[in-house]
Amino acid sequence: MSLRALRIGIVCPYSFDVPGGVQLHVRDLAEWLIDQGHDVSVLAPASPDTPVPDYVVSTGSAVPVRYNGSVARLSFGAVVNARVIRWLESDFDVVHLHEPLTPSISLLALRAATCPVVATFHSAMQRSRPLEALSPVFRPSLERVSGRIAVSPAAHETARWNSGTDPVVIPNGVFVDRIAAVGPDPRWAGTPSRPTISFLGRMQEPRKGLPVLLDALPAILEACPRARLLLAGPGDGAEVLSAVAPEHRHAVEILGTVSDEEKAGLLAGSDVYVAPNTGGESFGIILVEGMAAGAPVVASDLEAFARVLDDGRAGRLFACGDADDLARVVIGLVGDASAREALRAAGRRRAREYDWSVVGEQVLAVYETAVLAAAPVESGPLTLRFEAWRDRVRRRVRRGAGR
Amino acid sequence: MGGVVLADVVGGASAGSLVLAGDLGLPDVPLRYVVLVVALVLLAWRLTYTAARLDRLHARIEGALTALDAQLVRRAECALELAAAAVVDPASSLILASAATDALAAEDEHSAGRLEIENVLTETIDVALTPEVVAAVRAEGGAPAELVERLAAAGLRVQLALRMHDDAIADCLRVRRKPLVRLFHLAGHTDLPQPVPLDAPQRL
């Protein structure tokens, strides 16, 4: 539906060395855009020995920084700034910054960019004191952003707090067909006699809610003694097992970290996929992946999860943190094959709405509108003409210095 | 040398003038003048900086308005094409065609009348393309479905441009409310930006 091929620059503040929600989002978006015939370059930190796709330009290694309550791998500094400026010289039609309010290359690119800028806000934080304190510094830069996107209503609230504007909500995307094509993995597929219940996520992170699921285990095993509980994700399996009563340990299988392919296979073969997260979720892409794979999804009734699951129509919800309620919902589903089938179908339909073909088209619409809204430099106000002239001079000087 | 100058400055400050000037062969300048000049320079920098910032914001609003204009025209074109292709029943097609033609005729106007016409088009699109009709056309596929998708995409882009415009206005008003901007009349003769009161988005 797009008018012409755009030259798009995407800036990812977090390092490609470790997987993460924003990195995956940027990678998928870039691949979808390239698929649509656009010219895409992604600027992101990555250490020299990390293999990156060929559309990624690295700003060098990232440093782990404590910021806003968690450790982020970011890159900044004078050398990095010079790299960002050089990257911006490739005359993009539009530059798309992710998390523009992190102390990172996104912020550097925001200051240096002269083309139309689109920004996506991912995180949901309450209020950021440092940002409030520095808002006189950031505000003029943020005013350069013409198109603002938030990935969830929670992120929308955060952005409204911190930048005082009203971003359009465009959810995260998944490649539904890719996930659906994998099919059940025989190692983990449930059978009528041995149903499987799966969990994905960092096991030791309390907000991922594994303890809630383990608390529900005795009741679940009482109702269906041969059920298998499959736990996938990074973490110390032995520690998890030690928290389970010895008579129930036989039901728990620790899979450890799994590949994307294995993850899809696990979800596709699950009789129930449980997301017992207790909070801090801005979106819940994993639920979409579960639905795309065809897993009947059971999730805690967090606002973000309820939204993705269409208020319980595309998956079952249980009271957040309530192991008894979780057990009740899981037992109900495991014993009812037709309900599971209905849920699989509803989930697949729902997941379509988060397919990149839908989500990417919306992002592209923001790009196009931002490009359209860019003031023509030649006849624009004096300031813009001055800036364009200054950029030309700077470029010439830098080229001269490089010789 | 640096140490000497610093000592001179400190000494000069207590005496109420800069002695370092003597070192460089310049006349003695009372400190208060130096402070005044520095303050004036800072104020001038601040004023030009803020004026440039405001200028950019006004340009952003202007640009967003241009985008909104272009997207509205594109939407009207899509609607007209859809009406001409007889995707919906003849009566609906006719109403749609008439609303779209009106919108295209009002293309160059920036007035309340234009808004009214665009709102009528939105309404007409909602009436002609009910969810049932859209579902039926989509299920059938082919060229009609494509036209419907294009109209939906055009409607989305109108909304995005509108939001971009409102965002730019919010940013601009925040700066224009600053006492410095009002005191020094930095906005010049530019009118206070007004939001475009377009109705709710088309359902499609």
UniProtKB/TrEMBL annotation, chain B:
Domain of life: Bacteria
Keywords from the named record: Membrane, Transmembrane, Transmembrane helix
Bilayer-spanning residue ranges: 31-49
Keyword Transmembrane helix listed: yes
Protein name per Swiss-Prot or TrEMBL: Membrane protein
Gene source species: Arsenicicoccus piscis
